[in-house]
Design brief:
alpha+beta, SH3 type barrels, seven-stranded antiparallel β-sheet, globular, TAT_signal, signal, C5-epim_C
């Protein structure tokens, strides 16, 4: 549950009334219904479970067909953590509200001018689409004890390089753990569990307050260990060092904690003041230290996950910037602050502008702009983060980018019971050089090892446990039972396709598709068996628009679900229409 935050002293800030960006699209489609196709006899090769219902619901609000959420990234992965080689700031007491009001004024101007395209924060979105609502901490993880994480005596999560090595405060790990506990607190019904989730979240916020570094009229949250990345030159830090990702995420933690019913009034005021001071760090340029934001030579704003040792330098990391932007969105929603709105616009403009450098067409996207290293785990994060930017701006461009990333390198694992349909006829099967599970290995590079043709006299099915892009090829399925276990077959509708809906993206607000003029287009419903049904063929004299609320891979093709007019609920193939966001 959430409550209304009390008014606090923000007289130094200009306020901007919050509002939602809403796109409305209407359309109509007329056409005579065609008779469904005749039933076809089907045999099965291997032991293929029945295909699951396309609308089967998983726990929560998401559909079982939706794009799977990857584990949270580990910010220190691929690097070396070492004890601090110089003195780090000693912990201090949490600040008093009265003292905060007497400190130097908060920044009230932008750090510099930067390019803006007019993006606004869409604030009226469903609760489950808001930042971090998809990242609940599971009850079994509320007291972590793993190779790299554990709780200290105060209940604060610590990062350790290995089991027998002392741990350190790591701001991003603490913030993300705290935000996960806040999300779980909101939905937990058991009072004891609910209380512990809140205790854990408050402990993380408390440690940030104790370790804060006050500089340049802002609060910064230091990393108290040395860190060198193995492959990213320039990420070579001596403690204390700082990250724009932590600065932005801290805003989210403080804002979201302030909105919970079970925090005291003093805690609420403290968290709001802390959010103000964390936000102030994003209003300080790279002309002093510490710093987290800069403007590149083309005039675009960046929040640097890994700021360089020299002004204006950094890794230009995409995922870290977007995670930090979620803090700006939370801050705008809570305060209506004009400066935060300007920064959010600038960040969205930057991500839009540099998407072509993030994207690695028909393959894994690049982790950062400086090193351009394709990283499979972060590609799935990019898909999820761009989908959230679509929700948080209401703009279709980020949704289209989500579609492109999904098609470039889709999440490879199929749902339990996934089944491939084979049309009668001849098919070519392949063996590729992968790991034992069928996943990509750079040293093997999906080399073709063997191929053969098989002929089926009638329509056939087989179970599959992978659907992924093979490097320098198309999308393939990996058969996981029967005579062809371990063989791959290319996706090609209607000859071979995965039955049902897969990798769904929910649109909010609805997007718009356009039927071309004077072209016959067939639309379909999707039956409970996952197959296309009730086809309707339509044609329009002039281009005709219709809203759609969902984009998925349906029976091996990208399709859109129409959400208005006489074709409501029907799916149309992407190749037959055009969509917004171009």
């Amino acid at each position: 549950m959430t409550g209304t935050s009390p008014a606090v002293d923000r007289r130094r800030f200009f306020h901007l009334a919050g509002g939602a960006a809403v796109a409305a699209a209407t359309g109509s489609a007329l056409g005579a219904a065609a008779a469904p196709g005749a039933a076809t006899a089907v045999t099965t090769i291997g032991t293929a479970p029945a295909a699951p219902s396309v609308l089967l619901k998983a726990p929560g609000s998401a559909s079982a067909a939706e794009i799977p959420l990857p584990p949270l990234p580990e910010q220190l992965e691929g690097g070396t953590v070492a004890p601090p080689s110089r003195t780090v700031p000693a912990p201090r007491e949490a600040p008093e509200i009265e003292a905060l009001l007497e400190e130097e004024p908060l920044p009230d101007v932008l750090p510099f001018e930067f390019n803006r395209d007019g993006y606004t924060a869409a604030l009226e979105i469903p609760e489950h689409m808001m930042p971090w609502r998809d990242r609940a901490t599971k009850w079994e993880n509320v007291t972590p004890d793993t190779q790299h994480t554990y709780l200290d005596e105060a209940g604060v999560i610590q990062y350790r390089p290995d089991w027998d090595v002392p741990g350190y405060d790591q701001p991003v790990t603490q913030i993300q753990f705290g935000l996960g506990c806040v999300t779980s607190y909101r939905s937990e019904q058991d009072p004891t569990r609910k209380a512990l989730f809140l205790t854990r979240a408050k402990a993380q916020a408390g440690r940030l307050l104790e370790t804060r570094v006050e500089a340049r009229g802002a609060w910064y949250f230091p990393y108290p260990f040395d860190f060198t990345h193995t492959t990213h030159s320039g990420v070579d830090y001596r403690a204390p060092w700082y990250s724009g990702m932590a600065q932005g995420e801290a805003i989210s933690l403080f804002i979201q904690l302030s909105e919970l019913d079970d925090v005291t009034e003093d805690e609420r005021l403290l968290y709001l003041a802390a959010a103000d001071r964390a936000f102030a760090s994003l209003l300080r340029a790279d002309d002093g230290t510490p710093w987290a934001v800069n403007r590149n030579s083309a005039g675009y704003l960046w929040i640097q996950e890994y700021p360089g040792n020299e002004p204006g330098t950094g890794d230009y990391t995409y995922n870290g910037m977007v995670f930090a932007m979620f803090g700006l969105w939370d801050y705008i929603r809570a305060t209506g602050n004009e400066l935060a709105a300007a920064l959010f616009d600038g960040c969205c403009t930057t991500i839009d502008r540099y998407f072509p450098l993030l994207r690695n067409e028909r393959w894994i996207s690049f982790y950062c702009q400086t090193h351009r290293i394709p990283t499979a785990s972060y590609h799935q994060h990019h898909i999820n983060l761009f989908r959230q930017l679509h929700w948080q701006t209401g703009g279709p461009r980020f949704a289209r980018m989500t579609d492109q990333l999904t098609d470039d390198y889709p999440s490879p694992n199929t749902p339990t019971g996934a089944t491939i349909a084979f049309a009668a006829g001849t098919h070519t099967l392949y063996r590729f050089d992968t790991d034992a599970d069928g996943d990509y290995v750079a040293s093997k590079d999906d080399e073709e090892l063997e191929k053969k043709t098989v002929t089926f006299a009638r329509a056939t099915q087989a179970p599959a446990n992978k659907r992924r892009r093979i490097h320098n090829r198309g999308i393939y399925y990996r058969i996981n039972a029967g005579a062809y276990t371990g063989w791959w077959i290319g996706e090609y509708y209607p000859n071979t396709y995965l039955i049902g809906e897969y990798l769904a993206t929910v649109c909010h607000p609805n997007r718009t598709l356009t039927f071309p003029a004077a072209k016959q287009v067939t639309c379909y419903l999707v039956g409970t068996d996952g197959k296309l049904a009730s086809p309707r063929t339509v044609s329009f004299t002039n281009p005709s628009n219709a809203p759609f609320d969902r984009r998925s891979i349906v029976n091996g093709r990208a399709m859109y679900r129409i959400a208005g007019g006489s074709l409501t609920g029907y799916w149309v193939w992407a190749g037959d229409i055009t969509t917004d966001g171009r």
